[in-house]
Amino acid sequence: MNALTPPQYARTYRYDEIDREFLQERIAEFRGQIERRLAGELTEDEFKPLRLMNGLYLQLHAYMLRVAIPYGLLNSAQLRQLGRIARRWDRGFGHFTTRQNIQFNWTKLEDVPAMLEALAEVDMHAIQTSGNCIRNTTTDEYAGATPDEVVDPLVYAEILRQWSTLHPEFTWLPRKFKIAITGSPNDRVAAQVHDVGVLAKRNERGEVGFEVHAGGGLGRTPIIARKLRDWVPESEFLAYMEAVLRVYNALGQRENIYKARIKILVRDLGDEFTQMVEREYERMPRDRYRLDPDIVAAIGAHFAPPPFAALEDQELPEDPEFRAWASTSVRAHRQPGYASVTISLKPIGGIPGDASADQMEAVADLAERHSFGEIRVTHVQNLVLPHVRQEDLHALWQGLRAAGLATPNIGLISDIIACPGMDYCALATARSIPIAQRISERFASLDRQHDIGECFINISGCINACGHHHVAHIGILGVDKRGEEVYQVTLGGSATNDAAIGELIGPAFSYDTIVDAVETLITTYIAHRSPGERFIDTYRRIGVTPFKDALYAPA
Amino acid sequence: MPLLEDGRLRPDDWTSIEDDAPLPEGPAIISLARLQAEAATLAGRNAPLGVAVAPETQPEEIAPFLSRLALVALRMPKSKDGRAFTQARSLREHHGFAGEIRATGHVLPDQYAMLLRCGVSTVEVPEGTRPETWARSRDAIRIGYQAAQGADHPLSLLRRKLELA
After folding, report:
1. Separation CA B121–CA B72 (nearest Å)
2. Which 3 state secondary structure label does DSSP give A481?
3. How far A466 CA lies from chain B's nearest CA (Å)?
4. How many angstroms separate the CA atoms of A342 and A329, rounded?
5. Residues A18-40, buried b or exposed e (16+ Cβ, 10 A)?
6. Which of B58, B92, B111, B155 to mutate to test the interface with A (most CBs of A within 10 A)?
7. Cβ separation of A288 and B155 shorter than 8 Å?
8. Given 3-state DSSP classes, what are the helix, strand and coil percentages for chain B, each rounded to the nearest 5?
C-alpha cells in the first residue's frame, strides 16, 4: 500500500474506471481551453467562466485554485495529497473554507494542469467550485456518527454530486447555486440560508423522504428560505431538484448580478414559485428522472459504516489539560465507546481555516490510526475525525498537540469564521483575517473563553458575506467608507433550526476600535446573563438596547 | 451565417424575415409576435416556417403553433445566458417538438455538447468558424451523469457513456 491508497474503511465514494476516465477527459478539456485562450481563440470574457468552473480564480496577488471536497468528506490519502500539493505548488499552506472546500491561494497558472493531475490521483478535482452552476453540496460534518441522525445524508449528497456534475441544463444558471443537506432534525448545515436546503427524514414506515426549502441566502440580501414541500419521496428526489432548477433557470434575473440568486426570485414570486415548481414536477416524464432504489443501494454501499468494535462508553482520564480540550472538542457518537473529535484550525492569533502541509499530513496519519482514515471539513473551517475510540482520545490529543492542532476552543469565542478578506480576495473591501486574529488574541485566556461559553463570531470582508456574518451571534462586516475600512456589527443571528438574520446594532467601528467593541458586547453579556445562559440567550431575553447603550453611550 | 450540424458546417437554407417584410417562397423564420398576429394567414402557407424566440419567452407561448413549425431558433444574447438550455429541453420534453432547434447568438464550442444533450440540433456560427474546434469540444467528455434529451436515453444507471456524434 502506498501513500495514495485510500484506507479500507474510510467512507469516501470510491471512483471506478468511468469516474476516472471522466476526470482525465475533464483535465484534457481544460488544458485545451487554456491553449485556445493563449492562442487568442477565446477572449478573456469567454475564458473566465470556463476557468471558474474548473475552480480557478484570479485574486489580488495570484490565481487561487479552489478544490472540491465533496460534502466535506476526505480520506487520509486525499488529505495527505492536499498537503503534498500545498508544499509543492503553494507556499506550504491550504485554506479550508466555509463551503467545506480547500483553497490554494498562491497558484501559478502554468501549474494548474499538474495540480489537477495530482488531485485526480486521489479521485479529487476542482470542478464546479466556482461559476454560475451547482456548487459543492455541503452536509453535516458529523454525518454517520451523530446520535441524533435519522438518515445518513452522505449517500444523497453523493447522488447530488453526480447528478449536478456537468449538468447539461444547469451549468449556465443566472448565478451560483448551493445546496445543503442534513439527515438530522438538528440543523448543523445552515439549510435555511442556502439556495436549496434539504432535510432528509423518515416517515412512519421508515421510508426516506426529503423536506425541501429554497430561496435562502446571505450576501447583501439575507433571506431565510421558503419551505417548498414537506415530503418528496426518495425516488423523486432528483425529479424535484430538476423542477426547482428549471424554474430558476428560466425565470431568475440575469441583468443585475445582485438580484440573480434564486432567493430574489423566490422572495418576489412567493407562493407562486412553489406552485410553478409543483407544476413542473407534475408534468415531467418522471420515469426518466426516477432515482432507482438499486442506485441508492449501490451508492449507499460506499458509505457503509466502518467495522466498529463492541465497546462501552468510558470515563476520560483525569489529566486537566486534556479534559479542557475534550470538553469542547469531543462529541458523542452513536456507537458506544466511540466519539467524534473536532480539530480546531483556529489557534490563537492564527488564520482561521489555514493548515500547513505538515499539519495535513499529521491529521492524515492520526485519522488512519484512530478514525478509519476518515476526515471531515466543517463549514466552521475546522476538521473532524468522526469515529474515534474513547480509549484513544488521550493519545489522539497528544498527537494533535504535537502538530499544533489541540487549541481547546471549539464553539468558543475564538472559534471564528472569517473570509479571506482583503489579504487575498479581489472582491473584498476590508480585511477580515487580522480582525479575527486580534479578537482571538484579546480573548486568548482559555479560562475566560470557557467562562464566556458558546459564542459565534463570523467576519466578512465585504457585503457578499462569505464569512456568514449575518448568522453569527456577533457578526462583523467590513466595508469601505471613503477609503477607510470600517466594521459594522450585527447581533443575534443564527444558522441552526432557529435560523435568524442578525440585527445591525448601530454605526460602524474603525479597524482600531472593533476589537474593543466586541469586548464591550461580551462585558455587557456577562453583566446581564442569568446562570446557564449563552450570549445568544441573553441577547434574546434582554434585547439589543443594553448592548447598544454600552457601545454608544457617551464616555 | 453558416450552420453547424453534427460537428460539420453546412449552408443555411432558412431566411430570417423582418416583421414588416413580405414572406418569401422558401423556408422562413419569423418573430413570435408576427406568428401570433398572422396565425390565420400563415395557416395556408406551404413552405416551411420557423420562429425565432427571445430568451425570456416561455415555450408554452409557442406551444399552440408548434405543430406547424419546422424550426425554433433560440437566442443566447451572451454565452453566459443559459435560458436556451431550459427552453430546448422543454420543447422536446414537454411539447414533443421534433423539428430543428437552432441555437443562435453568442454560443461557445464548450457549450456544444450540453446544447445537444438539451435537444438543440444546430448552431448558427460566425463565418470562418473552424468546425474541428466544435467537434473536439463536443467529444471532449464522453460521460454523462444524468438524464438528458436528444440522442441520450433515459437512465437505468446514474451514468453511462454518451453517444453524441
Report:
1. 10
2. strand
3. 23
4. 5
5. ebeebbeebbebbebbbebbeee
6. B155
7. yes
8. 30, 20, 50
Architecture of domain A1-127+319-410: Alpha-Beta Complex (3.90)
Kindly report the length of chain A: 555
Q: Which residues, at least 6 apart from B68, have a Cβ–Cβ distance to it below 8 Å?
A: B42, B43, B49
| β-sheet with A196-202: strand ranges across | A138-139, A179-182, A196-202, A208-214, A226-233
Classify residue B46 by burial, with Cβ atoms within 10 Å: 0-12, 13-18, 19+. exposed
Angle at A284 between CA A283 and CA A288, to 5 degrees: 150
Instruction: Please list every residue in chain A whose beta carbon sits closer than 8 Å to the beta carbon of residue B117.
Output: 168
CATH of the domain at B142: 3.20.20.70
Cell triple for B87: 427552453
Q: Could you tell me the three cell numbers for A90?
A: 503553494
The answer to whether the beta carbons of residues A370 and A435 sit under 8 Å apart is no
Contact A29 B141 (CB under 8 A): yes
Name the closest residue on chain B to residue A48, using Cα atoms.
B80
Q: Where in chain A is the domain with CATH 3.30.413.10?
A: 145-301, 417-552
Per-residue pLDDT of chain A (555 residues; tens, 9 = 90+): 567 888 999 999 999 988 999 999 999 999 999 888 889 999 988 999 999 999 999 888 888 999 999 999 999 999 999 999 999 999 999 999 988 999 999 998 889 989 999 999 999 999 999 999 999 999 999 999 999 999 999 999 999 999 999 999 999 999 999 999 999 999 999 999 999 999 999 999 999 999 999 999 998 889 999 999 999 999 999 999 999 999 999 999 999 999 999 999 999 999 999 999 999 999 999 988 999 898 899 999 999 999 999 999 999 999 999 999 999 999 999 999 999 999 999 999 999 999 999 999 999 999 999 999 999 999 999 999 999 999 999 999 999 999 999 999 999 999 999 999 998 888 899 999 999 999 999 999 999 999 999 999 999 999 989 999 999 999 999 999 999 999 999 999 998 888 889 999 999 999 999 999 999 999 999 999 999 999 999 999 999 999 999 999 865
Cβ–Cβ below 8 Å for B79 and A46: yes
- Cell numbers for A174: 443566472
CATH 3.30.413.10 fits A145-301, yes or no: yes
d(CA A22, CA A388): 34
For residue A73, the distance in angstroms to the closest alpha carbon of chain B comes to: 20
- Stated pTM of the model: 0.94
How many C-beta atoms surround the C-beta of residue A512 within 10 A?
Answer: 9
> Domain A417-552 classified CATH 3.30.413.10?
yes
How is residue A251 written as a grid cell?
425565470
State how far the Cα of A491 lies from the Cα of A433, in Å rounded to an integer.
20
Which residues of chain A neighbour B143 with C-beta distances below 8 Å? 18, 21-22, 25
In chain B, the number of structural domains is 1
Q: Residue B13 belongs to what domain range? A: 3-161
Percent composition of chain A: helix, strand, coil (DSSP 3-state, to 5): 40, 20, 40
B100/B126 Cα distance (integer angstroms):
19
CA dihedral A229, A234, A239, A240 (to 10 degrees): 10
CA pseudo-torsion sign A13, A14, A15, A17: negative
A36–B133 C-beta distance less than 8 A = yes
